[in-house]
Amino acid sequence: MVHGHKGVRFQNWARTYGCCPEMYYQPTSVEEVREVLALARQQNKKVKVVGGGHSPSDIACTDGFMIHMGKMNRVLQVDKEKKQVTVEAGILLTDLHPQLDKHGLALSNLGAVSDVTAGGVIGSGTHNTGIKHGILATQVVALTLMTADGAILECSESSNAEVFQAARVHLGCLGVILTITLQCVPQFHLQETTFPSTLKEVLDNLDSHLKKSEYFRFLWFPHSENVSIIYQDHTNKPPSSSASWFWDYAVGFYLLEFLLWTSTFLPCLVGWINRFFFWLLFTRKKENSNLSHKIFTYECRFKQHVQDWAIEKTGEALLELKAMLEAHPKVVAHYPVEVRFTRGDDILLSPCFQRDSCYMNIIMYRPYGKDVPRLDYWLAYETIMKKFGGRPHWAKAHNCTRKDFEKMYPAFPKFCAIREKLDPTGMFLNSYLEKVFY
Ligand SMILES: Cc1cc2nc3c(=O)[nH]c(=O)nc-3n(C[C@H](O)[C@H](O)[C@H](O)COP(=O)(O)OP(=O)(O)OC[C@H]3O[C@@H](n4cnc5c(N)ncnc54)[C@H](O)[C@@H]3O)c2cc1C
Where is the chain membrane-spanning (predicted)? Predict the structure, then answer.
């Protein structure tokens, strides 16, 4: 029988959102998950599944029952011929990579961190960059879902196809994702080349950059024209690294954190910090190569607040954000604004539904855990993103409600109908999801 714990406090990775679930479960089997759902039905409780707890919002919070999937983390099957792997949804990608390495396989794209679960990254629509590559959920070829009544649905293009179209970006509101089958590719190495540029250059030559590099992204340094371009491409070169403790940690972390903390008393320093650190760390060309998952992911050292919307009009939106900052010198923005590109797809609530997109991620760090005022920046950014028809990243805090999503997503009613059918009592809702659906 499954045992729950009282008194557990859940906090997300950035320690920006947390909750005290009434009961906390760590099931080890499908039967135990079913037991928790049966208890929840009997006692009329809400249920929230949590993966790696990395979402920078309250999407994974609940005061009802929390199911942590960390003990359902096995690789179940590797089909070398089809290059597909079936995993339990609680597996951390960081544990999946070495298993795939052993079989000469890899995921074709990843987000910036791997301490996240397969169930969590697909559920929130996690993405990286590469205009020929979709969000991570597009790598899913099948999944199994336990619905509120304890039934198990096998979903793929050929079985429960409508649920499959919804459940790849599931927001945690359709049931418990038990297993996921991912389409892999042969293992590959990437070469990463980072070099300086300007906002004008990168926007004038966007198509050319997108063609030149399979995984192209760029970082804009607000309060300046500075841009750092990052190309990542297949290579046969042996692993090499330009990492340096002095520049990456002493300067890029300890000194930066201290200066950002100082700027909480003197916000006018932020523009200078952005320009100074660009000059210190981003003005020379750098090259690294390694296995793909070691290049895609990097160490995120700072706790932070973020927003990340998918839009179509990169240049117009970015220039409007820049103009807003110039017109309002009291609004300050930490570096970088990270701009990534993603192929469109057909997943009902994917921010890239039916359109190739550009994600524009803004950030405000929390030096030594201190919250930095960000409301004006956040509101101005959201206004611009809405004006350009943007759709917010599901994992990252936003102020949108059902009315907004109805406008943003042509398939929103279809998703709602599927959700209401699978979870008629709203067992899997929490306050974040109630804003989305009510
Ligand atoms: C440092 C850092 C870097 C990041 N980099 C990127 C990036 O490069 N690109 C990007 O797009 N995002 C990025 N993110 C966001 C991150 O990828 C998402 O928040 C992702 O969902 C985290 O996975 P998780 O396992 O922690 O999910 P959680 O935060 O635990 O959960 C996310 C959602 O999935 C649901 N869920 C999880 N598992 C299941 C399951 N088995 N069944 C049903 N529902 C489930 C939860 O209920 C919740 O609704 C980053 C976040 C951090 C903190």
Answer: 258-282
Same domain, 171 and 200: no
Based on the number of CB atoms within 10 Å of its own CB, is 211 exposed (0-12), middle (13-18) or buried (19 or more)? exposed
Structural domain that includes position 154: 75-186
52 Cβ inside 6 Å of ligand 1: yes
- Total count of domains within the chain: 2
Position 382 in a domain: yes
Residue 414 lies in a domain: no
Q: How far apart are CA 121 and CA 93, in angstroms?
A: 9
**CA-proximal residue: ligand 1, atom 2 (nearest):** 113
d(CA 174, CA 147): 7
**Cβ of 177 less than 6 Å from ligand 1:** yes
pLDDT digits (tens, 9 = 90+) for 202-238: 999 999 999 999 999 999 999 999 999 999 999 999 9
Q: Is there an atom of ligand 1 within 6 Å of 59 CB?
A: yes
- The SS3 assignment for 173 reads coil
Residue 329 maps to a domain: yes
65-118, pLDDT tens digit by residue?
Answer: 999 999 999 999 999 999 999 999 999 999 999 999 999 999 999 999 999 999
Establish if 405 belongs to a structural domain: no
Q: Which residue out of 17, 34, 46, 54 has the highest number of ligand 1 atoms within 8 Å of its CB and is therefore the one to mutate?
A: 54
Question: Could you write out the DSSP letters of every residue in 131-172?
Answer: TT---GGGGEEEEEEE-TTS-EEEEETTBSHHHHHHHTT-TT
Please report the pLDDT score of residue 151 as a whole number.
98
333 neighbors 155 (Cβ within 8 angstroms): no
CA of 320 to the centre of ligand 1 (A): 29
* Integer CA distances (angstroms), 106 to 76, 89, 200, 339, 369, in order: 16, 17, 36, 24, 35
* Exposed e or buried b per residue across 149-181, where buried means at least 16 C-beta atoms within 10 angstroms of its C-beta: ebeebebeeeebeebbbbbbbbbbbbbbbbbbb
Give 433 Cα–ligand 1 centroid separation in angstroms: 15
Ligand 1 contact via 427 beta carbon (within 6 Å): no
Q: Check whether 1 has a pLDDT greater than 90.
A: no
ipTM of the complex: 0.99
